[in-house]
Amino acid sequence: MELNQYIDHTLLKATATKDDIIKLCNEAKEYNFYAVCVNSCYISLVKNELKNSDVKIAVVVGFPLGANSANSKLFEAEQGVKKGADEIDMVLNLGFLKSEMFDAVEKEISDIKQAIGGKILKVILETCYLSNSEIITACKISKAAGADFVKTSTGFGTGGATEEAVKLMVETVGDTLKVKASGGIRDAKTAKKYIDLGVSRIGTSSGIRIVTSSNTSTNEHTY
User: Which of 56, 122, 143, 151 is labelled catalytic?
Assistant: First the structure.
């Protein structure tokens, strides 16, 4: 698979305008990225901009904290799919996980997966806040709940993807789930490193830089 087909071209900033989202979609079409990843208020706009293209639509749910009520996350996911989302990137309830309320965490994921049916469900673990044992537990819960992916980060936490976390996630889920690395991935070298470790998708707002240059570095705070 070409590098561009690993990329979810992402724009989740609160200040993202309509014109910013249109630009994102045009870039995704031009560079043949796998998907765009946006906040749910822009689904209709994105669906229109991406019509007659192969670019998928990924929408975040419970973003970025994951602490919304289970019902609100479920409704958001249902509405997202109804309006045209192909994939849902939901944030796991970190407080519940750390409280060892594992049944509640699993039920929330399971309910959303059942509601969206054949659409792809990615569970964002926000690994910067989790211990290794919590990452393993979150992966196992996501697997048991029927998720399709586990994902490292929102890009809004204290850190993004790390080699240690990605290795742990890949080892834990094996071939049963896919892994998406996101947060702080800004160049081709880093993207390829995670792909070599076994990830199936890269979430980044630096997709163009990644596919057009293999030797780029930046200090820009970009997720």
Answer: 151
Active-site residue, selected from the candidate residues 113, 178, 180, 187: 180
Distance CA 167, CA 141 (A): 18
How is residue 10 written in tokens? 């992402």
**187: annotated active-site residue:** no
Q: What is the pTM of this model?
A: 0.94
What is the mean pLDDT of each successive set of 10 residues along the chain, which is 223 residues long? 94 98 98 98 98 97 98 98 98 98 98 98 98 98 98 97 98 97 96 97 97 57 41
Residue 151 annotated to the active site: yes
Let me know if 18 is a catalytic residue. Answer: no
Domain map (residue ranges) of the chain: 11-31+38-179
Catalytic residue among 89, 119, 122, 178: 89
Q: What are the DSSP calls for the chain, one per residue?
A: --GGGGEEEEE--TT--HHHHHHHHHHHHHHT-SEEEE-GGGHHHHHHHTTTS--EEEEEESTTT--S-HHHHHHHHHHHHHHT-SEEEEEP-HHHHHTT-HHHHHHHHHHHHHHHTTSEEEEE--GGG--HHHHHHHHHHHHHTT-SEEE---SSSS----HHHHHHHHHHHTTTSEEEEESS--SHHHHHHHHHHT-SEEEES-HHHHHH-SS--------
CATH superfamily of 11-31+38-179: Aldolase class I (3.20.20.70)
Output the pLDDT for position 214.
Answer: 53
